[in-house]
Request: fold
Amino acid sequence: MKILRFAAITVMIALIITNAGCGPTKSSSSQTSRTPDESQSPDEAASIKKRIISLPEEKKSSIQKISEALRANEINEKAAVLLYIQAVHEKNKLPEIYKNDEGIDFAENLMAEYQWIRNHFNELTADEKTALEPYILPPDNEKSFFHPKNKNNTISLIELLPGTCKVEAADNQWHEIHFSIPGKPIAAVIHYYKDTSDPNAANDLLEQEARLIEQAFKDSWSKFKELLQSEPGKTIHVYVGVANLGDGVYGVTQWNNAGECTVSIAPVLDEKILKSTAVHELFHCFQVGMGLALNEFKEDMEWLFDATATWSENFIYPDCNREHEYLHNYFNDLDNPLIAKYKRYGSYMLFYFLQTYLQDTSAVPNALKKAKTTSVSYVIPELVSDYNAAFYMFAGCNYNKEPLKYYKDIPSFPDIKASENMIIVNDSAEFDVGVMLEGGAMRYDIIDFTDDIDKVVDIEFKFAEFEERELGRRALIKIAGEWHEEDWSGINRRKFCRNEPSENVQQILLIHSIANLKGKLDYVYYIFARDKCDNSFNGNIHIKTSTKLAVNLNISSNYVTKEEIAFDEDENCYVVKKRQIDYTENGGIDTRVIVGPEWNEIDIGSMFSSFYAEGHLYEEYDSEKYRIITGNKEDGYHIILHPGTNNKKWVSKFTKMQMLGSSSFLIEKGEGINLYFSDIDVKPEEVIGKRLKGTRTMDISGAYGSGSATLEFDFELP
Reply:
């Protein structure tokens, strides 16, 4: 299906931060009762004005409203079909709850709805059949809603009155052009209408239109066949100059259960529009030839049909660029799920991106082949070996503005950028920003900072930490007019002290994305702006060990630290200011005790021993307790894992032993921890922006057994 235009969605791209409590965030989980991080003191929290960022309320078209009602099971498929047809052909008859919001509308092609009528025709009532049959009859049938002589007729679907389509007597005024290719003498028949009763009819123009469609078929048929390794098995019938397709709709494709394709094309005087429309509709016929069909009312299959067919326009005519007309709505609606009925045309950009990312055109045929047996939501992630990384890049490319302006086309890609949410930080305050994204959505928050660092010198972001790889959080940071990028997907904190030239951040573009087409992201992140800079940062160390000794002794331990560190200029290193340590260890042995020489061994009984150790420590330190020395990515970082503690008796060890009929129980206090690792050098690839994060593993072996130890470290640096 090819559509003339979409009306632009009105989207507010700048948010001026006003007084506290200015309205709910877009996320349902954002509440004004949420408190700052527990590390804040009550006085600090009270001194910071709280700001709730309110995103603009989304306006919706009739198509969106009907689609959402169907998805929520508020209406059934038949009701949705009738409402969709009304939305296209009788907008004034729509129930009020489904009318489009002010200024919001979509030109819409009803390929799936017409197919639903065809598939479920025998289930309709007599009145419904009378009202709906004209939509599925071929345009050369006098009763067809799309017959050229019926262009001024309408059908009332509210009353479903029979006989509302007035049929005029018609003579045989349809003419034919037979399109052939090797092996197919009649691959397609192109029908055009000549109205001899009207001296003002554009008969010659319709014949020219038919010839241009024939040329478009010549340009594309063999390329589609090579791409898809398939072609339509039935003769295609194309009708030119068809009326009543819908406001702004260029073409419609329908097919019957035998796989016969019928294409209707509106009178179009623009050669580029006409040829790209013909290519688009022909691609639908190739999709049917592959065994695909909209046999059920499936939004994801409809999305795939039109996203790939729109992509095919660029594939055949890369310099025609008629597909660009869908991009305004696409880029303005990226924060809604990717697979949606009303945005299926602009979603060709996913396949355009994958074509560029993969450096070939395999994504489209692979998607269509897999979709015959698998849901589209699961098909798309299988098109790329590292889909999450590709989608992370896709979300960045879709900003389509410096510093992320990557899309190219012939002769150029349009300057259409994604809609933004702007947060202006010009004084000390706390900002709560709600984020709610579903299935393949992405969002762009611009955080703009005042130049006056006396007002805002300390900037701190706090996030929920994402473990799932399909959730992306990407930061573009502007300092001294230059942009650099950091991956914030796995962090829960990022700080800037703007009195340092290298951290005098001017602006941040924060991109959230969710690659999982069935997933959901719903959370709140915080921005703290202060007039004093706190240069302390957080880090943690986690060491796990597991050993098995030859005497049936198993030992495991778990050591976790949470630390606050700060840079000491005198020592030129990062020192531990506060530290919390949790430690557990357990083990046991169950064996027989054998004494004597080998020739006279004596089994004197069983021995069972178990032990458990635990410790919890919280201490504040002075500057000699250092954790990280040296201090930049070029020189490398060196982490001291054990700077020591003041309390030498913070671990309690409990031992229970039973042997030769007697038992004993022992409690000891001390540090007594063998964590195997001491100091480590951080590898260059473990320095991610201002973050040190890595893992080490070690095999443990000795005279009595073996095991393994794993170290994980994660530090934020200023």
In short: Residues 1-48, 154-171 have pLDDT under 50 and may be disordered. The longest strand covers residues 573-595. Residues 203-228 form the longest helix (26 residues).
